[in-house]
Amino acid sequence: MKAVFPGSFDPITKGHVALVRAALPLFDTLYVAIGVNADKTGFFPLEDRKEWIRQCFKDEPKVQVVDYQCLTIDLCRQLGASYILRGIRNPLDFQYENDIAQANRNLCPEVETMFFTTPPEYAHISSSIVRDVFRHRGDWQQFVPEEVRP
To answer: What are the structural domain ranges in the chain?
Structure first.
């Protein structure tokens, strides 16, 4: 079985890593898929983000890193993935992610979304918070794996 874990991973956080590790036993291949929006520029360069993810999972052959510029559901079709993995930190995340999951179900009923809850110690971390702390020269490294170093 294959799954896609989509996101900006700008940067990957300790919460992202925990979710991937929790999901790995369920899948033969787990694609960590960096969505690229042509109208937006990532804060950290795409190649850095890809390398950080590769380094985080260098000892895990089931993890593959890809980037994409299409609908996530179309990426799932291209990769032969039957599942989308999404992390839930709080009720607001659930509402947002559930709406996307329902839209994806309408577009492609054969791909199912699986929700994983973030471990409590990482539930307050988001990539946008990390970027803001980084931008203001705060201690951002406590929120990311040690492999993430610009």
So the answer is: 2-138
Angle at which helix 72-79 crosses helix 91-107, to 10 degrees, equals 60
Catalytic residue among 14, 49, 86, 89: 89
**CATH 2.60.40.2470 for domain 2-138:** no
pTM > 0.85: yes or no: yes
Where does the pLDDT of residue 123 fall: very low under 50, low under 70, confident under 90, or very high at 90 and above?
A: very high
Is 127 designated active site? yes
pLDDT level of residue 149 (50, 70, 90 thresholds): confident
Known catalytic residue at 40 = yes
Higher pLDDT, 21 or 38: 21
Q: Residue 116's CB: how many other CB atoms inside 10 A?
A: 16
Catalytic residue among 14, 16, 49, 86: 16
46, 7 in Cβ contact below 8 A? Answer: no
